[in-house]
Amino acid sequence: MEGMSERAYAEHAxxxxxxxxxxxxxxxxxxxxxxxxxxxxxxxxxxxxxxxDQQMRSRGGFGAGSDVPATSSxxxxxxxxxARTALxxxxxxxxxxxxxxxxxxxxxxARAETLxxxxxxxxxxxxxxxxxxxxxxxxxxxxxDMEKASGKAVTIETAILQRVLETHVREQxxxxxxxxxxxx
Length: 184
Hints:
This protein is mostly helical and 184 residues long. It has 7 helices and no strands.
């Protein structure tokens, strides 16, 4: 036999024989052709594929009831720890966004753009119809005011006043159409 048996490797690694069998099934052990365990290569592979905190807790070195905190030492920094840290940061950011959404601080961008567009459309529609609604009233009021001031009967045509108002309102709306709302 070139390498170690499951029982010998379990004693060498400080884990149970069941953990060795599980590591063998999941491919975390390096085996020789005769099925024995290559201890040095298996230690490296198991170390890179297993949570370092879990390894320490399984050995009884860290965790519940221990005075030493259940965290990895700086020497244990592996890709697993980096991935776990990234996941934790992502989850915290996601929770923060969810809280801000519930508080009403954040809104859905597509919904906000739709609402802004709808509001602008309603505003534009009101201004486009405004000359038609007020032209007759304005013509009558101007005619009355000019008659008082000059003492002569003056008539301002409603259609002419409406055309003048429509021209100026459309110019103003064209100028406002150049404004763009950016939600970025």
